[in-house]
Amino acid sequence: MDFHCWNEEGCTVELDEREKQAYIDYVQKKNPGQQIKSLVVKLDGDYVDLKYEVVPIPFKRIRRITGYLVGDTTTWNDAKLDELKDRVKHE
Fold first, then answer.
1. Residue 70 pLDDT > 90, yes or no?
2. I want to staple 49 with a disulfide (CB 3.0 to 4.6 A). Which of 13, 16, 25, 42 is the partner?
3. Going by C-beta distance under 8 Å and a sequence separation of 6 or more, which residues neighbour residue 63?
4. Residue 42: burial class (beta carbons within 10 Å; 0-12, 13-18, 19+)
5. Residue of 17, 27, 25 whose CA lies nearest to 52
């Protein structure tokens, strides 16, 4: 994970491990189950701006085909595949 910290003048700031881990924990709590790709901490007086990016989660596209919600048609039998081939697409 990329971790960067700057102050209001744009200078790099080193944080102690406890403070760094607190920011990481905060972002993980806001995004459960996702891995943090990068975290940028900007210190601005009494305020802290956090900008982060999480690793995208791959997903399968689900479509409605001939009345069924499916991700793909690899498990369909010949009759269902023929039904798919003969269907009329609405435009």
1. no
2. 42
3. 69, 70, 71
4. middle
5. 27
